[in-house]
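Protocol step 4 of 6.
Sequence for Phage tail tape measure protein domain-containing protein (marine sediment metagenome) entered exactly as in the expression construct, tag removed. Do not edit the line below.
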Amino acid sequence: MTKTVKGMNQVVGRLGVLTKRVAKVGIIAFGVALGLVTREFVNFDQAITSSSAKFGDLNLATAKGQKQLKALGKIARDVGAATQFSATEAAQGLDYLAMAGFNVEQAIAGLPRVIDLATVGKIDLARATDISSDALGAFNMMVKDSSQLQTNMTRINDVMAKTITSSNTDLEQLFETIKKGAPAFTIFRMSPTFVSLYIIVISFSFLGAT
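Step 5 output, structure tokens:
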């Protein structure tokens, strides 16, 4: 009987030690997770603050400006929740749109239009937004009318996505071609579709030659 009691006490003691170890590991894991969440929150806050400062039509000293800031934060968080991209990446994307001359309303409407391009191009959302807005400028498709701007953005993104899936080129290479050819595109009024077809033909010609 004494041996049985002693054995049970040893088991209980070991379970106690194990429980403490598990609890300690749990606390450490919780601390790490909390640290990651806090860091992501700080990064997001910094990104959204940076982007909001670049919008010419946003004045944080006014009630309208505060409302616009909340709307920017909401679209970034919505993108982060619904896609593989983080809210911080989305906020950085807004930053690029602001630098390209988009107003708050245009940026909020335009950001989701870049998601497919980023996915197909296998690049982060911020970089895809930068490329998309710069491509609009290269083809002289940056306009003040918000509705037309969104139409242009959808068109340019669709063309670029189709080009990289139909040719031996990636998004970065395509963008370099667009940047170098921008003056000619403007002078000769070449459409994105025409340039896309040209790149595809050249790409397949190169493959055939090799």
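Step 6, annotate. Residues 10-209 form one domain.
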